[in-house]
Amino acid sequence: MNTWSNIRTIAKRELAAYFSSPLAYVFIVIFLLLCGFFTFMVGGFFERGEASLVRPFFDWHPWFYLFLVPAVGMRLWAEERRVGTIELLLTMPITAWQAIVGKFLASWLFLGLALVLTFPIVMTVNYLGSPDNGLIISGYIGSWLMAGAYLSISCFTSAMTRTQVVSFIVSVVICLFLILAGFPPVIRLLEGWAQPWLVDVVTSFSVITHFDGFQKGVLDTRDIVFFGSIIGFSLFTTSVILRGHRAG
Amino acid sequence: MIKVQNLAKVFGAKRAVDGVSFSVERGEVLGFLGPNGAGKSTTMRMITGFIPPSAGTASVGGFDVVAQPIQAKRLVGYLPENAPAYTDMTVHGFLNFAAEIRGLTGDAKKKAVYRVVEMCFLESVLHQSVETLSKGYRHRTCFAQSIIHDPEVLVLDEPTDGLDPNQKHEVRQLIRRMGEKKAIIFSTHILEEVDASCSRVIIIDRGRVVANGTPDELRARSDWAGAVTLRVGGLTGAAARDQLGRIPEVKHISIVAEDPSGVSVRVYPKPSATRQLARVIGEATHGWRIEELHTEEGRLDEVFRNITMPDTVNAREEKE
């Protein structure tokens, strides 16, 4: 139980750090504005005339997260290293894993909170018609898992550097790859010259492909495993990088 | 409490720490001296488990820092160089966090925070964010963090760096008081601090321990140790040098000041005669009008220079 209380202490501190700086509020406001604008204006929510959030709302999430999640994750380790508090943190009686998981969970919960705050859109669609709420819930779950996958990537790019900007750029590029691998125009381009199996391999790396299932209301184990393994792998890489720094 | 054996750390081609061994028992305050880049911080980082050693072992309270890091870290309070602290937290929040992660909860946590706030004089800034603190307060906040769980072992990397003279004095007093019950290592390059709070000194240079002893023992290694300075009225420097030079125990003589009314001379003893030089001089200078005479104590700064940069010191002495 010691493990959990350590993780909780770290996570609590990290969450408090978000809300003691403008970052949390700026992030939430921008995220909600983007969601509203794209759902109702660009996504053509009203013009569609159907009580569904799939296309007009969730379709945009991979793209919002591309910029917003690295902005949340970039400070996780880069700031610790820049200020030197990493030396305090890692000489406390906790393991590096507890610190990594604690920090990750805090940011993930924060992203979850931002996501939950989009509830007025759900209320709107329920007021206007009778949507399949199971579909919406599975969309939310998928969206949160996808955010976690992005976040874990920013977590490890953040551990690589003491400059937040570098961390941000590198993680945007990696996340962009994960999106583009399943982006229809890119797939069409690929189909022009690559073998079908290669196309399959590439698209299977894409968050879009795996997010699609959730949007259709299918909680497929493979999709959950996909996001879970990105998170697991990235956090493991983080621990390797941190150990590498300390070993000199 | 702290045992370090043949500890080494290699960064690329550089051997930052190269076979350091020592131990610190409860009730001891060990001063860790050395020029910048000598390997002091690296050694401390290995003892606290921040970086793993390349070779050798370090243990705290019997727990090896590599094999049983959590148990070892529980016993240690650590103030890293430059006293880092989470800038986005208040002092109170930061200390609460430190207490929680040390496993303190409820009443024990409250008491611990209250105790260190009082010890480190932090009441006035308790609800201020760390970012807005002056360097001295920030330093003390980080120091407070290191003693919040009343650890048996304290590792302090330049605990007085950046403090004003009053604060320095307070911290030294604090270290000395706590040193009665704990094992403390602190690094510094301020030599007066060693006298003010250490029971033992280690000098480290280029990754190696070059001296290890009590402050008095180290001071005795100084050329100054046992030297006699005297002022004689109505005598010229040449005459004084001539007469004193005949004393067999004298190694060499330097004229400190000379004016028409008299001369000040410093006489350095041969190593065998550090204790009786004043008496011998007294016997050999019958009839002199001695206005002043005293025996010098060794000087730590000179010992430090002698040990850590022997070449330059010798070169300068030859020139004199």
Describe this structure in words.
The complex is a heterodimer of chains A (248) and B (320). In chain A, 80% of the residues lie in helices and 0% in strands. Chain A has 248 residues and is an all-alpha fold. The mean pLDDT of chain A is 89. Chain B has 2 domains: 2-219, Rossmann fold (3-Layer(aba) Sandwich), CATH 3.40.50; 228-296, Alpha-Beta Plaits, CATH 3.30.70. Helices cover 36% and strands 28% of the residues of chain B. Chain B has helices spanning 40-47, 69-75, 91-101, 106-119, 135-146, 165-178, 191-197, 215-220, 237-245, 277-284, 300-308, 310-319, and strands spanning 2-11, 14-24, 29-33, 55-60, 63-64, 76-79, 153-157, 183-187, 200-205, 208-213, 228-233, 250-259, 262-269, 289-295. In chain B, the strands form 3 sheets. Chain B has a 6-stranded mixed sheet, with helices on both faces. A 4-stranded antiparallel sheet of chain B has the order 2-1-4-5, covered by helices on one side. In chain B, strands 12-13-11-14 form a 4-stranded antiparallel sheet, with helices on one face. The two termini of chain B are 46 Å apart. The interface between A and B is medium-sized, with 24 and 36 residues.
CATH top level assignment of the largest domain in chain B? Alpha Beta
End-to-end distance of chain B: 46 Å
What is the mean predicted local confidence, pLDDT of chain B?
A: 86
Task: Tally the beta strands of chain A.
Answer: 0
Identify the biggest protein-protein contact and residues per side: A-B, 24 and 36 residues
Largest beta sheet of chain A, briefly? none
Main sheet strand line-up of chain B: 6-7-8-3-9-10
Considering DSSP H and I runs of 4 or more, what fraction of the residues of chain B is helical? 25-40%
* H-E order of chain A: HHHHHHHHHHHHHH
Helix content of chain A: over 70%
- Write down the domain tally of chain B: 2
Q: How much of the residues of chain B is beta strand, in percent?
A: 25-35%
Q: How does CATH name the architecture of the largest domain in chain B?
A: 3-Layer(aba) Sandwich
Low-confidence segments of chain A: none
Give the oligomer, counting copies of the same chain as homo and different chains as hetero.
Answer: heterodimer
Shape verdict of chain B: elongated
